[in-house]
Design brief:
By secondary structure, the protein is an alpha+beta fold. It has 10 helices and 10 strands. It is globular, with a radius of gyration of 20 Å.
Length: 327
């Protein structure tokens, strides 16, 4: 086919001075934290939590627990179709890149890219397409080929020269476990990732990420309240160093305590058999203000945006490309 997809990467530091631009549409969770009268205190406390968590896990040769700090970059990926967007590239996905700063040696250690994951097309799939498909349906089901296009777009980006020019290793995405599944503790324990959990069947999110070429394993790090879901494409345990893994754990465990305190800031840790619940009452709140309702509304708004500006205008091109791109 004549049409081809090209990707461009933009990055911005996520620090206490971070201010989302007025026209940004994809920095949802981050923009949420960086607005209002408490914006700088929100950001400062979030970053302090990440550093504290990192140093607690990277405790060797770190007697005062202050050796490391984590720098974060918001990576925004835009996509164009042979210039057909007339200079208006579609904001496709948003991920985080971690860099570990060793204060003892002044060394900057490259961390993991991925971590958080925000995607326009995923918002369309879950908040528009799936919502309309399941409306008034007595039995839950998904639309035909649900997640295929998104999975192929993601793999196209990760396999692109643009990705390889910027990042040395494949991404790792770290998300909350599903409240619809039960997880069982195993005897496997990793020195950094912690105790491994497994469940009997994959969640809809697990299946969706599988179409992105990513497997999933669930680990509960030391002093965490619940397992985290780690999505990866290679070998999670051998492809990444301890400090790389700790950069992801400290970042995403902190964000999940803010986003889902009922699960990740619970006052008691997950047991041998564990089903997460957002209705759980025995938890503590962080000192960080986060508007979860706004995030849900933005998912629908962004899903409608991508439907209007991407799915419908380029439907024929996308269908042809998707049919010829291996999943």
């Amino acid at each position: 086919m004549s049409k081809d997809f090209t990707f461009a990467i933009k990055s911005i530091c996520f620090d206490e001075d971070y201010r989302p631009s007025d026209n940004t549409r994809i920095t949802t969770n981050f923009a949420n934290l960086a607005r209002g009268t408490n914006r700088q205190e929100n950001l400062r406390n979030t970053l302090r939590m990440i550093d504290n968590r990192f140093n607690a896990l990277a405790h060797w040769d770190n007697p005062k627990g202050d050796r490391y700090t984590v720098n974060l970059e918001i990576i925004s990926v835009e996509m164009s179709i042979d210039g057909a967007s007339n200079g208006n590239a579609l904001p496709l996905i948003e991920i985080l890149k971690t860099t570990v700063v060793d204060r003892k040696t002044d060394e900057r250690i490259e961390g993991i890219v991925g971590n958080n994951f925000s995607s326009y097309v995923r918002d369309y799939d879950f908040s528009v397409l799936l919502l309309e498909h399941t409306k008034n349906q007595p039995v839950f089901s998904t639309p035909e080929n649900f997640g295929d296009l998104h999975g192929k777009l993601f793999k196209s980006f990760v396999n692109s020269s643009t990705y390889k020019e910027h990042f040395k290793k494949p991404p790792v995405i770290c998300l909350s476990v599903s409240s619809s599944k039960t997880y069982h503790r195993t005897e496997n324990k990793h020195p950094v990732l912690g105790v491994e959990y497994q469940q009997d069947e994959y969640s809809l999110t697990d299946e969706y990420f599988n179409k992105m070429g990513m497997k999933v394993r669930y680990f509960m790090p030391a002093n965490s309240a619940a397992p985290l879901a780690f999505y990866f494409s290679g070998d999670l345990l051998s492809d990444y160093t301890n400090l790389e893994l700790i950069s992801t754990i400290s970042t995403m465990d902190t964000f999940q305590k803010i986003y889902r305190p009922e699960i990740y800031n619970a006052n008691s840790a997950a047991g041998k058999s564990y089903q997460p619940s957002l209705k759980h009452q025995d938890y503590s709140l962080t000192r960080i203000v986060y508007d979860r309702e706004e995030r849900s509304q933005l998912a629908i708004e962004q899903g409608r945006f991508v439907e209007e500006h991407f799915i419908k205008p380029y439907q024929a091109i996308l269908e042809q490309w998707s049919a010829n791109y291996p999943l």
